[in-house]
Amino acid sequence: xxxxxxxxxxxxxxxxxxxxxxxxxxxxxxxxxxxxxxxxxxxxxxxxxxxxxxxxxxxxxxxxxxxxxxxxxxxxxxxxxxxxxxxxxxxxxxxxxxxxxxxxxxxxxxxxxxxxxxxxxxxxxxxxxxxxxxxxxxxxxxxxxxxxxxxxxxxxxxxxxxxxxxxxxxxxxxxxxxxxxxxxxxxxxxxxxxxxxxxxxxxxxxxxxxxxxxxxxxxxxxxxxxxxxxxxxxxxxxxxxxxxxxxxxxxxxxxxxxxxxxxxxxxxxxxxxxxxxxxxxxxxxxxxxxxxxxxxxxxxxxxxxxxxxxxxxxxxxxxxxxxxxxxxxxxxxxxxxxxxxxxxxxxxxxxxxxxxxxxxxxxxxxxxxxxxxxxxxxxxxxxxxxxxxxxxxxxxxxxxxxxxxxxxxxxxxx
Length: 414
Ligand SMILES: Cc1cc2nc3c(=O)[nH]c(=O)nc-3n(C[C@H](O)[C@H](O)[C@H](O)COP(=O)(O)OP(=O)(O)OC[C@H]3O[C@@H](n4cnc5c(N)ncnc54)[C@H](O)[C@@H]3O)c2cc1C
Prior knowledge:
This protein has 414 residues and is of the alpha/beta class. Helix content is 30%, strand content 25%. The chain is globular.
Protein backbone atom coordinates (compact mmCIF):
# COMPACT_ATOMS: atom_id res chain seq x y z
CA UNK A 1 0.00 0.00 0.00
CA UNK A 2 1.37 3.43 -0.91
CA UNK A 3 1.66 5.56 2.19
CA UNK A 4 -0.25 8.80 1.83
CA UNK A 5 1.91 11.85 2.57
CA UNK A 6 2.72 15.30 1.23
CA UNK A 7 5.73 13.74 -0.57
CA UNK A 8 3.52 11.10 -2.21
CA UNK A 9 1.14 13.82 -3.45
CA UNK A 10 4.10 15.83 -4.83
CA UNK A 11 5.59 12.72 -6.48
CA UNK A 12 2.26 11.79 -8.05
CA UNK A 13 1.72 15.35 -9.29
CA UNK A 14 4.80 14.85 -11.51
CA UNK A 15 3.13 11.83 -13.20
CA UNK A 16 -0.36 13.36 -13.47
CA UNK A 17 -1.58 11.23 -10.53
CA UNK A 18 -1.57 8.05 -12.59
CA UNK A 19 0.40 6.02 -10.04
CA UNK A 20 -2.08 5.75 -7.15
CA UNK A 21 -3.04 2.15 -6.40
CA UNK A 22 -6.49 0.94 -5.41
CA UNK A 23 -7.32 1.73 -1.78
CA UNK A 24 -8.41 -1.88 -1.12
CA UNK A 25 -8.31 -5.14 -3.05
CA UNK A 26 -11.42 -6.87 -4.46
CA UNK A 27 -10.57 -10.56 -3.85
CA UNK A 28 -12.62 -13.68 -4.51
CA UNK A 29 -13.81 -15.30 -1.26
CA UNK A 30 -11.62 -18.11 0.10
CA UNK A 31 -13.13 -21.40 1.34
CA UNK A 32 -12.34 -20.69 4.99
CA UNK A 33 -11.34 -17.87 7.35
CA UNK A 34 -10.49 -17.76 11.04
CA UNK A 35 -12.98 -14.93 11.47
CA UNK A 36 -15.84 -13.70 9.31
CA UNK A 37 -17.41 -10.33 10.00
CA UNK A 38 -20.81 -9.75 8.39
CA UNK A 39 -21.35 -6.08 7.52
CA UNK A 40 -18.76 -3.67 6.16
CA UNK A 41 -20.05 -0.62 7.96
CA UNK A 42 -17.83 1.34 10.33
CA UNK A 43 -18.31 -1.07 13.24
CA UNK A 44 -17.57 -4.20 11.18
CA UNK A 45 -14.51 -2.68 9.54
CA UNK A 46 -13.18 -1.26 12.82
CA UNK A 47 -13.63 -4.67 14.46
CA UNK A 48 -11.59 -6.31 11.71
CA UNK A 49 -8.93 -3.61 11.92
CA UNK A 50 -8.41 -3.98 15.69
CA UNK A 51 -8.47 -7.81 15.39
CA UNK A 52 -5.42 -7.43 13.18
CA UNK A 53 -3.75 -4.48 14.87
CA UNK A 54 -4.25 -5.52 18.51
CA UNK A 55 -4.35 -9.33 18.27
CA UNK A 56 -2.52 -10.25 15.05
CA UNK A 57 -5.62 -12.04 13.67
CA UNK A 58 -5.57 -11.31 9.95
CA UNK A 59 -7.15 -14.36 8.28
CA UNK A 60 -10.38 -12.37 8.27
CA UNK A 61 -13.14 -11.75 5.72
CA UNK A 62 -15.59 -8.87 5.91
CA UNK A 63 -18.72 -9.74 3.92
CA UNK A 64 -20.94 -6.92 2.68
CA UNK A 65 -24.18 -7.33 0.78
CA UNK A 66 -23.88 -3.94 -0.94
CA UNK A 67 -20.93 -1.59 -1.02
CA UNK A 68 -18.77 -0.88 2.01
CA UNK A 69 -19.95 2.07 4.08
CA UNK A 70 -23.29 2.10 2.22
CA UNK A 71 -25.40 1.44 5.33
CA UNK A 72 -25.85 3.84 8.23
CA UNK A 73 -22.13 4.60 8.29
CA UNK A 74 -22.53 6.52 5.02
CA UNK A 75 -25.90 8.02 5.97
CA UNK A 76 -25.38 9.68 9.32
CA UNK A 77 -24.90 13.26 10.41
CA UNK A 78 -21.41 12.48 11.81
CA UNK A 79 -21.78 13.86 15.34
CA UNK A 80 -19.10 12.61 17.74
CA UNK A 81 -19.46 13.15 21.47
CA UNK A 82 -19.11 11.15 24.68
CA UNK A 83 -21.33 13.01 27.17
CA UNK A 84 -23.41 9.99 28.20
CA UNK A 85 -24.86 9.43 31.65
CA UNK A 86 -23.98 5.89 32.68
CA UNK A 87 -20.38 4.90 33.46
CA UNK A 88 -20.26 2.00 31.01
CA UNK A 89 -21.57 4.20 28.19
CA UNK A 90 -19.21 7.10 28.74
CA UNK A 91 -16.31 4.64 28.99
CA UNK A 92 -16.86 3.19 25.52
CA UNK A 93 -17.92 6.49 23.90
CA UNK A 94 -14.96 8.35 25.43
CA UNK A 95 -12.60 5.60 24.27
CA UNK A 96 -14.04 6.09 20.78
CA UNK A 97 -13.75 9.88 20.93
CA UNK A 98 -10.15 9.70 22.07
CA UNK A 99 -9.31 7.17 19.31
CA UNK A 100 -10.91 9.55 16.77
CA UNK A 101 -8.39 12.21 17.81
CA UNK A 102 -5.50 10.14 16.44
CA UNK A 103 -7.36 8.09 13.84
CA UNK A 104 -6.09 9.89 10.74
CA UNK A 105 -2.50 9.24 11.81
CA UNK A 106 -3.24 5.68 12.91
CA UNK A 107 -4.92 4.75 9.61
CA UNK A 108 -2.76 7.03 7.42
CA UNK A 109 -6.07 8.32 6.05
CA UNK A 110 -7.59 11.73 6.65
CA UNK A 111 -10.90 11.11 8.42
CA UNK A 112 -11.34 14.89 8.81
CA UNK A 113 -12.02 14.69 12.54
CA UNK A 114 -13.10 18.18 13.56
CA UNK A 115 -13.33 18.67 17.35
CA UNK A 116 -15.44 21.80 17.01
CA UNK A 117 -17.55 21.28 20.14
CA UNK A 118 -21.13 20.17 20.68
CA UNK A 119 -23.98 21.89 22.50
CA UNK A 120 -27.02 20.01 23.76
CA UNK A 121 -29.60 22.71 24.41
CA UNK A 122 -31.83 22.63 27.47
CA UNK A 123 -35.20 24.17 26.62
CA UNK A 124 -37.30 22.88 29.51
CA UNK A 125 -36.66 22.66 33.26
CA UNK A 126 -36.67 18.90 32.88
CA UNK A 127 -33.78 19.11 30.42
CA UNK A 128 -31.91 21.55 32.66
CA UNK A 129 -32.01 19.01 35.48
CA UNK A 130 -31.15 16.12 33.14
CA UNK A 131 -28.12 17.81 31.59
CA UNK A 132 -26.83 19.20 34.88
CA UNK A 133 -26.96 15.67 36.21
CA UNK A 134 -25.05 14.44 33.16
CA UNK A 135 -22.42 17.17 33.64
CA UNK A 136 -21.89 15.98 37.24
CA UNK A 137 -21.71 12.34 36.12
CA UNK A 138 -19.22 13.26 33.38
CA UNK A 139 -17.02 15.07 35.94
CA UNK A 140 -16.84 11.86 37.99
CA UNK A 141 -16.15 9.79 34.85
CA UNK A 142 -13.29 12.04 33.69
CA UNK A 143 -15.21 13.15 30.59
CA UNK A 144 -14.79 16.89 30.03
CA UNK A 145 -18.19 18.57 29.75
CA UNK A 146 -19.63 21.74 31.20
CA UNK A 147 -23.04 23.18 32.01
CA UNK A 148 -23.28 26.68 30.48
CA UNK A 149 -25.90 29.44 30.61
CA UNK A 150 -27.85 30.98 27.71
CA UNK A 151 -25.49 33.98 27.28
CA UNK A 152 -22.53 31.66 26.70
CA UNK A 153 -24.66 29.65 24.25
CA UNK A 154 -25.32 32.85 22.30
CA UNK A 155 -21.58 33.66 22.32
CA UNK A 156 -20.77 30.23 20.88
CA UNK A 157 -23.59 30.30 18.31
CA UNK A 158 -24.40 33.90 17.34
CA UNK A 159 -27.12 32.77 14.87
CA UNK A 160 -29.18 31.08 17.59
CA UNK A 161 -32.44 32.51 18.92
CA UNK A 162 -32.25 32.07 22.68
CA UNK A 163 -35.62 33.76 23.33
CA UNK A 164 -37.65 31.28 21.27
CA UNK A 165 -41.41 31.80 21.38
CA UNK A 166 -42.23 28.34 22.74
CA UNK A 167 -38.99 27.07 24.23
CA UNK A 168 -36.34 29.65 25.20
CA UNK A 169 -32.79 28.34 25.60
CA UNK A 170 -32.18 27.89 29.34
CA UNK A 171 -28.61 26.63 29.03
CA UNK A 172 -26.71 23.76 27.48
CA UNK A 173 -24.45 20.81 28.08
CA UNK A 174 -21.23 21.79 26.28
CA UNK A 175 -18.52 19.33 25.28
CA UNK A 176 -15.68 21.30 23.74
CA UNK A 177 -13.81 18.24 22.44
CA UNK A 178 -16.82 16.75 20.68
CA UNK A 179 -17.27 17.33 16.96
CA UNK A 180 -17.64 15.63 13.61
CA UNK A 181 -15.65 13.49 11.15
CA UNK A 182 -16.12 12.56 7.50
CA UNK A 183 -18.23 9.38 7.61
CA UNK A 184 -17.14 7.87 4.27
CA UNK A 185 -13.51 8.49 5.13
CA UNK A 186 -13.88 6.57 8.39
CA UNK A 187 -15.15 3.50 6.47
CA UNK A 188 -12.63 3.92 3.66
CA UNK A 189 -9.70 4.44 6.04
CA UNK A 190 -10.47 1.30 8.03
CA UNK A 191 -11.11 -0.66 4.81
CA UNK A 192 -7.78 0.35 3.33
CA UNK A 193 -5.92 -0.56 6.50
CA UNK A 194 -7.71 -3.96 6.73
CA UNK A 195 -6.93 -4.77 3.12
CA UNK A 196 -3.32 -3.79 3.70
CA UNK A 197 -3.13 -6.35 6.54
CA UNK A 198 -4.25 -9.05 4.07
CA UNK A 199 -7.90 -9.20 5.09
CA UNK A 200 -10.50 -9.80 2.36
CA UNK A 201 -13.30 -7.27 2.00
CA UNK A 202 -15.93 -8.93 -0.17
CA UNK A 203 -18.62 -6.60 -1.45
CA UNK A 204 -21.84 -7.66 -3.20
CA UNK A 205 -21.81 -10.75 -1.00
CA UNK A 206 -25.01 -11.14 0.99
CA UNK A 207 -25.11 -13.62 3.84
CA UNK A 208 -28.25 -15.70 3.31
CA UNK A 209 -27.78 -18.38 5.94
CA UNK A 210 -25.70 -19.31 8.98
CA UNK A 211 -24.45 -22.89 9.19
CA UNK A 212 -24.15 -24.62 12.58
CA UNK A 213 -22.89 -27.93 13.79
CA UNK A 214 -25.07 -28.46 16.85
CA UNK A 215 -24.61 -25.42 19.05
CA UNK A 216 -21.54 -24.12 17.25
CA UNK A 217 -21.10 -22.01 14.12
CA UNK A 218 -19.19 -23.55 11.20
CA UNK A 219 -19.75 -21.06 8.41
CA UNK A 220 -22.12 -18.96 6.34
CA UNK A 221 -24.04 -19.35 3.09
CA UNK A 222 -23.73 -16.34 0.82
CA UNK A 223 -24.72 -15.19 -2.64
CA UNK A 224 -21.10 -16.02 -3.56
CA UNK A 225 -21.06 -19.53 -2.11
CA UNK A 226 -20.45 -21.27 1.21
CA UNK A 227 -17.64 -19.93 3.39
CA UNK A 228 -16.38 -21.64 6.56
CA UNK A 229 -15.12 -19.91 9.67
CA UNK A 230 -14.12 -20.51 13.28
CA UNK A 231 -15.70 -17.34 14.60
CA UNK A 232 -18.48 -15.16 13.23
CA UNK A 233 -19.17 -11.51 14.10
CA UNK A 234 -22.58 -10.09 13.15
CA UNK A 235 -22.32 -6.31 12.70
CA UNK A 236 -25.27 -5.39 10.50
CA UNK A 237 -27.09 -2.61 12.42
CA UNK A 238 -30.76 -2.49 11.29
CA UNK A 239 -30.58 -6.02 9.89
CA UNK A 240 -29.36 -7.63 13.13
CA UNK A 241 -32.73 -9.28 13.79
CA UNK A 242 -32.64 -10.86 10.32
CA UNK A 243 -29.17 -12.33 10.86
CA UNK A 244 -30.02 -13.49 14.39
CA UNK A 245 -33.01 -15.35 12.98
CA UNK A 246 -30.69 -17.11 10.50
CA UNK A 247 -28.54 -18.21 13.44
CA UNK A 248 -31.57 -19.38 15.43
CA UNK A 249 -31.94 -16.81 18.22
CA UNK A 250 -33.92 -13.61 18.81
CA UNK A 251 -32.77 -10.11 19.72
CA UNK A 252 -34.48 -7.35 21.72
CA UNK A 253 -34.08 -4.95 18.77
CA UNK A 254 -36.51 -2.87 16.74
CA UNK A 255 -35.55 -1.50 13.33
CA UNK A 256 -36.81 1.91 12.22
CA UNK A 257 -35.86 4.48 9.58
CA UNK A 258 -34.02 7.59 10.82
CA UNK A 259 -33.77 10.56 8.53
CA UNK A 260 -31.48 13.46 7.74
CA UNK A 261 -31.21 16.24 5.18
CA UNK A 262 -28.78 18.88 3.95
CA UNK A 263 -29.29 22.43 2.74
CA UNK A 264 -27.71 24.18 -0.20
CA UNK A 265 -24.15 25.32 0.67
CA UNK A 266 -23.75 28.72 2.31
CA UNK A 267 -20.81 30.67 3.75
CA UNK A 268 -19.63 29.60 7.23
CA UNK A 269 -22.27 30.58 9.77
CA UNK A 270 -22.04 28.00 12.57
CA UNK A 271 -18.84 26.36 13.78
CA UNK A 272 -20.17 24.05 16.49
CA UNK A 273 -22.71 21.21 16.54
CA UNK A 274 -26.06 22.17 18.08
CA UNK A 275 -28.63 19.64 19.24
CA UNK A 276 -32.09 20.78 20.31
CA UNK A 277 -33.90 17.76 21.62
CA UNK A 278 -37.11 19.35 22.88
CA UNK A 279 -38.07 20.90 19.55
CA UNK A 280 -36.14 18.02 18.00
CA UNK A 281 -33.63 19.01 15.40
CA UNK A 282 -29.87 19.25 15.26
CA UNK A 283 -27.49 20.99 12.97
CA UNK A 284 -23.85 21.49 12.01
CA UNK A 285 -22.16 22.90 8.93
CA UNK A 286 -20.11 20.70 6.63
CA UNK A 287 -16.80 21.76 5.10
CA UNK A 288 -18.68 22.27 1.81
CA UNK A 289 -20.97 24.78 3.55
CA UNK A 290 -24.13 22.66 3.60
CA UNK A 291 -26.11 22.67 6.81
CA UNK A 292 -26.32 19.04 7.93
CA UNK A 293 -29.65 18.54 9.67
CA UNK A 294 -30.91 15.57 11.60
CA UNK A 295 -34.54 14.59 11.84
CA UNK A 296 -36.45 11.95 13.72
CA UNK A 297 -37.18 8.27 13.50
CA UNK A 298 -40.32 6.92 11.85
CA UNK A 299 -43.01 6.06 14.37
CA UNK A 300 -43.31 2.49 13.04
CA UNK A 301 -40.85 -0.34 12.44
CA UNK A 302 -39.63 -0.69 8.87
CA UNK A 303 -36.70 -1.53 6.61
CA UNK A 304 -37.12 1.24 4.03
CA UNK A 305 -33.90 3.20 3.65
CA UNK A 306 -35.61 6.45 2.66
CA UNK A 307 -36.90 9.75 3.98
CA UNK A 308 -40.44 11.12 4.04
CA UNK A 309 -41.84 14.63 3.55
CA UNK A 310 -43.64 15.07 6.87
CA UNK A 311 -40.29 14.63 8.65
CA UNK A 312 -38.72 17.43 6.63
CA UNK A 313 -41.55 19.74 7.59
CA UNK A 314 -41.36 18.93 11.33
CA UNK A 315 -37.59 19.11 11.48
CA UNK A 316 -37.43 22.40 9.60
CA UNK A 317 -40.18 23.93 11.74
CA UNK A 318 -38.17 23.03 14.85
CA UNK A 319 -34.91 24.36 13.51
CA UNK A 320 -36.35 27.60 12.14
CA UNK A 321 -37.69 28.33 15.59
CA UNK A 322 -34.16 27.90 16.95
CA UNK A 323 -32.34 29.46 13.96
CA UNK A 324 -34.73 31.92 12.20
CA UNK A 325 -31.83 32.93 9.90
CA UNK A 326 -32.16 29.67 7.92
CA UNK A 327 -35.83 30.13 7.04
CA UNK A 328 -35.19 30.86 3.36
CA UNK A 329 -32.55 28.20 2.72
CA UNK A 330 -33.32 25.56 0.12
CA UNK A 331 -32.94 21.92 1.12
CA UNK A 332 -30.91 19.83 -1.31
CA UNK A 333 -31.24 16.20 -0.29
CA UNK A 334 -32.88 13.95 2.29
CA UNK A 335 -32.30 10.29 3.02
CA UNK A 336 -32.86 7.60 5.63
CA UNK A 337 -31.06 4.70 7.24
CA UNK A 338 -32.36 1.73 9.23
CA UNK A 339 -31.31 2.04 12.85
CA UNK A 340 -31.32 -0.76 15.41
CA UNK A 341 -32.97 0.34 18.65
CA UNK A 342 -32.81 -1.44 22.00
CA UNK A 343 -35.24 -0.71 24.84
CA UNK A 344 -32.60 0.96 27.02
CA UNK A 345 -31.04 2.80 24.04
CA UNK A 346 -27.66 1.16 24.69
CA UNK A 347 -25.75 -1.13 22.34
CA UNK A 348 -25.26 -4.89 22.48
CA UNK A 349 -21.70 -6.28 22.28
CA UNK A 350 -22.05 -9.85 23.27
CA UNK A 351 -21.58 -13.56 22.91
CA UNK A 352 -24.77 -15.24 21.71
CA UNK A 353 -26.58 -18.52 22.41
CA UNK A 354 -24.59 -20.03 19.49
CA UNK A 355 -20.97 -20.82 20.33
CA UNK A 356 -18.49 -18.58 18.48
CA UNK A 357 -21.13 -16.21 17.13
CA UNK A 358 -20.71 -12.71 18.51
CA UNK A 359 -23.03 -9.77 17.97
CA UNK A 360 -22.40 -6.03 17.84
CA UNK A 361 -25.58 -3.98 17.32
CA UNK A 362 -28.12 -1.73 18.98
CA UNK A 363 -26.17 1.47 18.32
CA UNK A 364 -29.45 2.95 17.14
CA UNK A 365 -29.40 6.62 16.26
CA UNK A 366 -25.95 7.27 17.70
CA UNK A 367 -23.32 4.73 16.72
CA UNK A 368 -21.12 6.67 14.31
CA UNK A 369 -19.36 8.34 17.22
CA UNK A 370 -18.66 4.94 18.75
CA UNK A 371 -17.03 3.24 15.78
CA UNK A 372 -13.39 3.12 16.97
CA UNK A 373 -14.29 2.25 20.58
CA UNK A 374 -16.82 -0.37 19.52
CA UNK A 375 -14.35 -1.97 17.09
CA UNK A 376 -11.68 -1.97 19.80
CA UNK A 377 -13.91 -3.62 22.40
CA UNK A 378 -15.63 -6.07 20.03
CA UNK A 379 -12.30 -7.23 18.59
CA UNK A 380 -11.13 -7.92 22.16
CA UNK A 381 -14.34 -9.81 22.93
CA UNK A 382 -13.98 -11.92 19.77
CA UNK A 383 -10.27 -12.57 20.28
CA UNK A 384 -10.21 -13.19 24.07
CA UNK A 385 -13.80 -14.02 24.95
CA UNK A 386 -14.11 -10.94 27.17
CA UNK A 387 -13.56 -7.20 27.11
CA UNK A 388 -13.85 -4.76 30.02
CA UNK A 389 -15.39 -2.10 27.74
CA UNK A 390 -18.00 -4.52 26.36
CA UNK A 391 -18.82 -6.40 29.55
CA UNK A 392 -21.88 -4.40 30.62
CA UNK A 393 -23.36 -4.50 27.12
CA UNK A 394 -23.96 -8.25 26.96
CA UNK A 395 -27.31 -9.76 25.97
CA UNK A 396 -27.77 -11.09 29.54
CA UNK A 397 -28.74 -7.65 30.73
CA UNK A 398 -32.18 -8.01 29.13
CA UNK A 399 -32.93 -11.20 31.05
CA UNK A 400 -31.30 -10.02 34.27
CA UNK A 401 -32.97 -6.58 34.21
CA UNK A 402 -29.58 -4.81 34.26
CA UNK A 403 -30.52 -2.05 31.80
CA UNK A 404 -28.15 0.76 30.88
CA UNK A 405 -30.70 3.52 30.54
CA UNK A 406 -29.47 6.14 28.10
CA UNK A 407 -32.82 7.45 26.93
CA UNK A 408 -31.86 11.03 27.86
CA UNK A 409 -28.47 10.97 26.15
CA UNK A 410 -29.33 8.76 23.22
CA UNK A 411 -33.10 8.40 22.86
CA UNK A 412 -33.60 10.73 19.94
CA UNK A 413 -30.45 12.69 19.44
CA UNK A 414 -27.14 11.65 18.06
C1 LIG B 1 -29.90 9.60 9.33
C2 LIG B 1 -28.95 9.09 10.38
C3 LIG B 1 -28.25 9.99 11.17
C4 LIG B 1 -27.36 9.52 12.14
N1 LIG B 1 -26.61 10.43 12.82
C5 LIG B 1 -25.67 10.02 13.68
C6 LIG B 1 -24.79 10.96 14.28
O1 LIG B 1 -24.85 12.16 14.01
N2 LIG B 1 -23.87 10.48 15.16
C7 LIG B 1 -23.77 9.16 15.47
O2 LIG B 1 -22.94 8.82 16.31
N3 LIG B 1 -24.56 8.24 14.87
C8 LIG B 1 -25.50 8.64 13.97
N4 LIG B 1 -26.30 7.71 13.34
C9 LIG B 1 -26.18 6.29 13.69
C10 LIG B 1 -25.00 5.66 12.99
O3 LIG B 1 -25.02 5.97 11.61
C11 LIG B 1 -25.02 4.14 13.15
O4 LIG B 1 -25.18 3.80 14.52
C12 LIG B 1 -23.73 3.50 12.68
O5 LIG B 1 -23.33 4.02 11.44
C13 LIG B 1 -23.91 2.01 12.58
O6 LIG B 1 -22.78 1.48 11.94
P1 LIG B 1 -22.72 -0.07 11.60
O7 LIG B 1 -21.38 -0.34 11.05
O8 LIG B 1 -23.15 -0.82 12.81
O9 LIG B 1 -23.89 -0.27 10.55
P2 LIG B 1 -23.97 0.01 8.98
O10 LIG B 1 -23.09 1.13 8.57
O11 LIG B 1 -25.41 0.11 8.64
O12 LIG B 1 -23.33 -1.31 8.38
C14 LIG B 1 -23.99 -2.56 8.39
C15 LIG B 1 -23.73 -3.20 7.05
O13 LIG B 1 -24.24 -4.53 7.09
C16 LIG B 1 -24.63 -4.85 5.77
N5 LIG B 1 -25.53 -6.01 5.79
C17 LIG B 1 -26.79 -6.10 6.27
N6 LIG B 1 -27.28 -7.34 6.09
C18 LIG B 1 -26.31 -8.07 5.49
C19 LIG B 1 -26.20 -9.41 5.03
N7 LIG B 1 -27.23 -10.27 5.15
N8 LIG B 1 -25.04 -9.82 4.45
C20 LIG B 1 -23.99 -8.96 4.30
N9 LIG B 1 -24.04 -7.66 4.72
C21 LIG B 1 -25.18 -7.23 5.30
C22 LIG B 1 -25.32 -3.57 5.30
O14 LIG B 1 -25.39 -3.51 3.88
C23 LIG B 1 -24.42 -2.49 5.90
O15 LIG B 1 -23.44 -2.01 5.00
C24 LIG B 1 -27.20 8.13 12.37
C25 LIG B 1 -27.91 7.23 11.57
C26 LIG B 1 -28.77 7.69 10.58
C27 LIG B 1 -29.50 6.70 9.73
